[in-house]
Amino acid sequence: MRWLRFAVLVLFITILQAGSLLDVIAVTHLSVRPDLLLILLVFFAVSCDSTEAIITSFTIGFAADLIGSVMGPRMVGFGLLGTALAYLHRVVAIRKMPHQSAAVFVACFLTGALVSFLTFLTGQPMGPRAYTALLGTSIYSAVVGPFLFLPLAWWMRIKTNRLSRA
Amino acid sequence: MVAAGTRQLSFGNCWLVMARKHIRVWVPKRRISRFGAPSRRMLFTWFMLVGLIFLFAPQSLTNRFQFTFARIFRWPLSIGRNIPLLVRADKLPENAAGRREARYQNYIAYLEEQLRQKQQTVEALSGLRSRFHALEGAKLVPADVITRSITGLNNELLINRGSDDGLAADMFVMGDNSVIGTICDVAARTGRVKLFTDVSLVTQVRVGKLQVDMLMQGVGNSSARIRLIPVKHKVNPGDFVFAKARPGFLDGPMIVGTVEQCRRDDDNPSLWDITVRPVCDMERLSSVAVVVMNP
Prior knowledge:
The complex is a heterodimer. By secondary structure, chain A is mainly α. Chain A has helices at residues 3-18, 36-47, 50-66, 73-89, 97-121, 130-155. In chain A, helix 2 runs antiparallel to helix 3, helix 3 (50-66) packs antiparallel against helix 4 and helix 5 (97-121) packs across helix 6 (130-155). The longest helix of chain A is centred in the C-terminal third of the chain and has 26 residues, at 130-155. Chain B folds into two domains: 76-131; 137-293, Rod shape-determining protein MreC, domain 1 (Thrombin, subunit H), CATH 2.40.10. In chain B, the strands form four sheets. Chain B has a six-stranded antiparallel barrel. The chains are: A mainly alpha, B alpha+beta. At the A-B interface, helix 3 and helix 4 of A face helix 1, helix 2, helix 3, helix 4 and strand 5 of B.
């Protein structure tokens, strides 16, 4: 694992996610945007070994918290789902694009639901259309996600055949 | 690997030969040394613990991480602020370009409301002097917007003014001569503004000429909703919505938005379901003013 490249990548994606640039590709009246940090989470969970996947999941979750409304929910949610996905990848190969897409969708939806619940625990109210927006984000991320895996693998110098389970 | 040789053990007066052959005892090799890399389980546990500490620690402490991040990366975060506007420039309605005109309209609306209130006060309290100017005696602290989030459910701004500039929680924030939200968190040099369209912000308002206090809650995506108002009150689309005065924070009503839609509530048809749009163009907002009363 090239940790310096990982740090630069996470920082870049975090700034991109926090800024307004992604509004250009926002769709529907709910302004649904893809969750790039979650795509990153799934990429590392299926392309690294379990130890690295745990570290990357929690780190990406921390980065997501930095640009979120409260600190903590995303770190816990991303960490849990990232670790679970990494262990699942040891049993079920997530190699083809449809499989990657499905993994991104499920991870995005479950993480979003968990994050919403944890945020609710801290006393923050949930919006009336929170789950509609979450579903939209999950679908959008699932569509965009697999296309980003190749440039991510190139940047991280990870051979694409490593995306298959070891 | 530990190799044990032939051994004789005594038990009472008997010598028993327990084993006359080599016994190989396999001891599992420790996967990690005491000071080496932690196991996956330990790693997961520690990270989870850190996450839970962040989750349940007071937000005033954990927010410092967010403020620090925003302050350090202020420049790259503000780079793409106008690009979505440029992309959608052709889609925006023509009157959106007249931002100055909208600002004047908001100011006129404020003056009209002020005049109406004045007349009522004069009629009701003839002779008594009352403080009515919403911003009389207030100090306006100008601030630049660092980042803004106005598309999701959490509608917030990060501004470059904080407690060092006299800002505190619950202070009203204005943009384009209208109230846009309140301060929710402050660091030394940074502040977070919750817009009234944020799902967690409830604002006490009045609509048009109605003398009824209402609660307006944000629903995200630059809109808010007013409910629990009986349909006997006449509310029309286009009516101005005013933030109600709050002693110590705002001395008089200030315009917040306009009624965009007014229909009967699906669950209870005897009540209105009113959708409110801000009169300030949040997307183009680059600077705001924080109302500091009685500085």
